[in-house]
Amino acid sequence: MIVFKFGGASVKSADAVKNIVSILQPYSEKIVVVVSAMGKSTNALEGIIEDFFKKNEKGIKEGYKKLKDYHFEILDSLFEDKGHKIYVEIGEVFEELADRLATEPTLNFDFDYDQIIGFGEILSTRIISQYLSHAGLKARWMDVRKALKTDNNFREGHVDWELSSQLMKERFVFDKDQILVTQGFLASTINNINVSLGREGSDYTAAILAHILKAESVTIWKDVPGVLNADPKYFDDTVLIEKLSYLDAIELAYFGTSVIHPKTIKPLQNKNINLHVRSFQNPEAKGTLVGNLKYDKLVPSFIFKMEQVLIRISPLDFSFIDEDNLELIYGKLYKNGVKINLQQNSAVSFQVCVSNDKRKIRDLVDELEESFKVSYETGLELITIRYFDEGTIDRVMINKTLLLEQRGVQNIQLVVRDLGS
Ligand code: ASP
Ligand code: MG
User: Which residue, judged by its Cα, is nearest atom 8 of ligand 1?
Assistant: First the structure.
């Protein structure tokens, strides 16, 4: 059995869905196909959720209509027979969404978010599963929420491995089918309340399924040729990294390489399952292989995180940053769900670089100001170079001012401000 994961870009249109059929056709193995929401549907749903929470009726209505039109347009190009049962299925999913949007929001934004965000994956998997069958493949739709169980940490559920293992082994059974189509990103609590695994979490779902069901390999089909040594958005002359060890992959993912979700590697490494990152636009190409590999040529990788905030925290009375202060600061970061991208401290100040989620940062700073002097700068970049040397540093520092630097043996991280070109 193998696991394939198709992200939003690979299922964003009717043509993209047709392309998936041609990717799958040559395979005779059993395949679990994990799918994300189509195109930018998750972002669209996030907009709808904001409006739902603010009770902006007009916004909800417009967002809903756009999402519905988008999916029905894809359906119309995929299925000529307008009597096909998929039209009823998708109609029902939209009715369910409309019912949910007609309810009152609770006081818990994260809970409401998870009750709505998953509609994107339900829609995409319904459509793709039916289309694969329509194209002659033996495919069946599976509701991952019946088998993937988490706690109720909404928007980033923690997996209950034991229970999920038991349920998945019971449910993910192929029988006469060759392909099981299921949702990335989604899970539920033991009480069947929807929980999501965090944005871009579908890779993680693929890894969890592969781990539990003992897959031979996982392939993530992307709109890039594989793992590149930098994001082409920020860098010309990128190179494809053909082979990556689990350790390098986890480091790169941790620092923010967007091709692989950071949680994806561990479940695969633990069972020695190979991960392939390949292009759905060029399915013949081999892409990147991540596994238990050794190599001697170390390619420097560059990771750029934009929209960073550097927060400087110092005790009000010029006392040291000691363990008591750190405990308080970490507690506030954790409570507000703010993740540290980089941290550094001196005697009387502690600096953290975090991604700019405005809602969270505002709450965090308000709380920290009760006990500390706090200042912060926004609009910064965090650049990480793995396997750096002086030449690679010079390359990224053109037209930037340095605010903070941290050097290790293999990695360097630089918080910089771009001076504009
Ligand atoms: N659709 C979700 C997102 O865009 C999950 C994923 O794509 O991995 O975050
Ligand atoms: Mg997505």
Answer: 200
User: Relative to the alpha carbon of 123, which ligand is closest?
Assistant: 1
Nearest atom of ligand 1 to the alpha carbon of 40: 4
Tokens of 56: 């902006």
Residue with tokens 């739709």: 141
Mark whether 178 and 310 lie in a shared domain. no
CATH number of 111's domain: 3.40.1160.10
Give residue 262's pLDDT.
85
- Residue list, CB under 5 A from ion ligand 2: 8, 36
Atom of ligand 1 nearest to the CA of 205: 8
117-172: pLDDT as tens digits: 999 999 999 999 999 999 999 999 999 999 999 999 999 999 999 999 999 999 99
Verify that 38 and 178 share a domain, yes or no. yes
Given strand 400-407, what is the order of strands in its sheet?
342-345, 350-355, 301-315, 372-386, 411-418, 400-407
The last residue of a domain, from among 197, 215, 233: 215
Ligand 1 mutation target, pool 42, 43, 218, 258, most atoms within 8 A of CB: 42
